[in-house]
Design goal:
Elements lengths: L28 H9 L8 H19 L2 H4 L6 H5 L3 E6 L5 H9 L17 E6 L4 E4 H5 L13 H5 L2 E6 L8 E4 L6 H6 L5 H11 L2 E7 L7 H8 L8 E6 L6 H19 L7 E3 L13 H50 L6 H10 L1 H12 L9 H9 L11 H28 L23 H13 L6 E3 H9 L5 H11 L6 E3 H15 L10 H15 L5
Parallel strand pairs: 1-5, 1-6, 2-4, 6-7, 7-8
Antiparallel strand pairs: 2-5, 3-4, 9-10
The chain binds guanosine-5'-triphosphate and magnesium ion.
The site of magnesium ion has 5 residues, from helix 5.
């Protein structure tokens, strides 16, 4: 099945042909001008649209006003093409590397797992046809990777950064960032030779999901971890908490740990909303304490569902981020050109520049008033001041109204147009409805997961179980399914998947699902943690067809 999945979520062939560019020799000044002024009605893909809007209207303004010196480097195509990124953060040994292993269903090259601090570097776990490790320095110069900007953290950091490529199917749609465990006590004081918190902030800003892992049987929030979490302010909506290894403690202890975790997090995260916590043991080993099996499985299922959804929402997040960036870039252009304007033509330049820096708050206010700009779009005044101190205001550029107009077009026309295009692309590339689902590729076939031939066989078997009111009891089904000689834990997993209404009985459809998974497990495939949507839908569809059989 993997062969049929050459294209990732964003790379499917365009439905709309991109507007043809006239050849340069035949291009008149007029058509050039027209092309400049007008963006195409429909972009080949949303990501392609974002790239073009950025290159034609936002980047020129960013260059004009040194946006990169003040805020963040100019974007490259690879920044737009980057797959959704999941950042894992936690104290050492909370199970970050194991969690990635569990999702990849294999080890990534260079992975170390162990009870002592093991991962000593940042690892971008990405897709590749063969296992390959690329060191940090080489990564930052690869134009097709979104890590160029990391060079600002220096060599000490780059020596502790690498990418590990691996052919795991999930990596075709998501990139994971494994991080060194946050240290506590003495080890923390020894320190690192690079700014760990700043690096975490960098990844967090670009991540689509941030997983904060805690160890239920060793709950501990060190100062460095606290600072890292504080560095995540503003990214609250991406954060998900994982209380891992919950199977290692009793129910009573778990309640206490859960309460303690919520209490400490409330203080650190300071968000009005309650952050979602996933309880469980996120690895492929049997649970040590079986009391909460159902709860853990449900939680695991929820977290996986959120991961499934990432590619779907990643494009929306990219649009969102570009909007944020454009608004900041516009305010930035006004601020820089205003400072330039305030400078004297001949004498007293340095003095005036120092004055302006001293009274920067007043200058911000003037710009806010004059152009009616939202306060929320203004940058952090202290960071802005730091860069101004090493700048020469006379070199700043004057206000370029055309560039500002372009930004208004981006925000008022181009982006809304792109969003309108969005639903079509979503339908076309819904990762659940085609074979690019990274998690359950093996069970999605062109006929649907259960073939009609199998379905007929399963139906016959089901009726041999003498169902009452359309349902066969757990005992009867259990005995029948045990004949497969599958291990008990697998059978229990299969039961959990197929008895969808948890009533301890199987109806005809649920029985078909169970049989389907029994065959899959017998063939050596890994069982999914939650019921794939195709099977859920099948059930609804079947119910619908049954309901419209008035004479049946
Ligand atoms: N019970 C249980 N133990 C786990 C789980 N995940 C990991 N472990 C154990 O916890 C230890 C640490 O696992 P790692 O995956 O190395 O943890 P890490 O967070 O990557 O650690 P560092 O890289 O040092 O920060 C190992 O001995 C694992 O066997 C889990 O889900 N449940
Ligand atoms: Mg690790």
């Amino acid at each position: 099945m993997a062969e049929s999945r050459q294209s990732g979520f964003f790379e499917a062939p365009p439905v709309y042909a991109p507007p043809k560019a006239p050849s340069s020799s035949s291009e008149s000044r007029w058509s050039k001008k027209k092309k400049e002024a007008k963006e195409p009605e429909v972009y080949p893909t949303v990501i392609e649209g974002l790239k073009r809007i950025y290159a034609s209207k936002i980047k020129p303004l960013e260059k004009e006003y040194d946006f990169d010196k003040f805020h963040s480097p100019l974007l490259r195509d690879s920044d737009f093409d980057a797959k959704p990124m999941v950042l894992l953060i936690g104290q050492y040994s909370t199970g970050k590397t194991t969690f990635i292993r569990y999702l990849l269903e294999r080890e990534y090259p260079g992975a170390h797992i162990g009870p002592e601090p093991t991962t000593d570097r940042f690892v971008a776990v990405m897709h590749g046809n063969t296992d390959l490790v690329t060191p940090g320095n080489a990564l930052t110069v690869q134009a097709d990777k979104p890590f160029g900007a990391l060079s600002k953290f220096g060599n000490d950091f780059l020596n502790k950064f690498q990418s590990s490529q691996s052919p795991a199917p999930i990596l075709e749609d998501v990139t994971f960032i494994d991080t060194p465990g946050v240290l506590s006590g003495e080890k923390q004081r020894i320190g690192r030779s690079y700014d760990f918190v700043k690096v975490i902030e960098w990844f967090a800003e670009r991540a689509d999901m941030i997983l904060l892992l805690f160890d239920a049987h060793k709950l501990d929030i060190s100062d460095e971890f606290k600072r890292s979490i504080e560095g995540l302010k503003g990214q609250g909506d991406k954060i998900k908490i994982v209380l891992n290894k919950a199977d290692m403690i009793s129910g009573q202890q778990l309640m206490r740990v859960y309460g303690a975790l919520m209490w400490s997090l409330g203080k650190v995260l300071q968000t009005p909303e309650v952050t979602r916590v996933y309880l469980g043991s996120f690895w492929d080993q049997p649970y040590q304490n079986e009391d909460y099996r159902k709860l853990f499985e449900a939680e695991q299922g929820d977290l996986l569902k959120d991961l499934y959804d990432l590619p779907k929402y990643a494009a929306i997040r990219k649009i969102n981020e570009l909007v944020k960036r454009s608004r900041l870039a516009k305010v930035h252009a006004y601020l820089i050109s205003h400072l330039k304007n305030e400078m004297p033509a001949v004498f007293g330049k340095q003095k005036k520049q120092d004055d302006l820096i001293d009274k920067l708050k007043d200058e911000f206010f003037k710009v806010h008033q004059k152009y009616q700009l939202p306060v929320g779009d203004f940058p952090d005044i202290n960071k802005f001041r730091e860069v101004l101190k090493v700048s020469d205001f006379t070199k700043f550029n004057k206000l370029n109204q055309k560039m500002i107009d372009h930004m208004d077009q981006v925000l008022g026309e181009d982006i809304p147009k792109l969003i309108k295009q969005f639903p079509q692309e979503q339908i076309r590339k819904n990762p659940f409805e085609d074979s690019s689902n990274p998690f359950d590729a093996s069970i999605t076939g062109s006929e649907g997961p259960i073939t009609s031939e199998d379905r007929a066989k399963f139906q016959e078997l089901f009726f041999k179980l003498n169902p009452v009111n359309g349902k066969a009891s757990g005992k009867v089904c259990g005995e029948f399914l045990s004949q497969s000689k599958l291990p008990r834990d697998q059978l229990s997993k299969i039961w959990g998947l197929s008895d969808r209404d948890n009533d301890g009985f199987l109806d005809e459809e649920e029985f078909a699902i169970a049989m389907y998974f029994v065959n899959l497990a017998l063939a050596g495939a890994t069982l999914p943690l939650r019921l794939p949507p195709e099977l859920q839908k099948k059930k609804q569809q079947q119910e619908a067809t049954e309901n419209v059989k008035p004479f049946g």
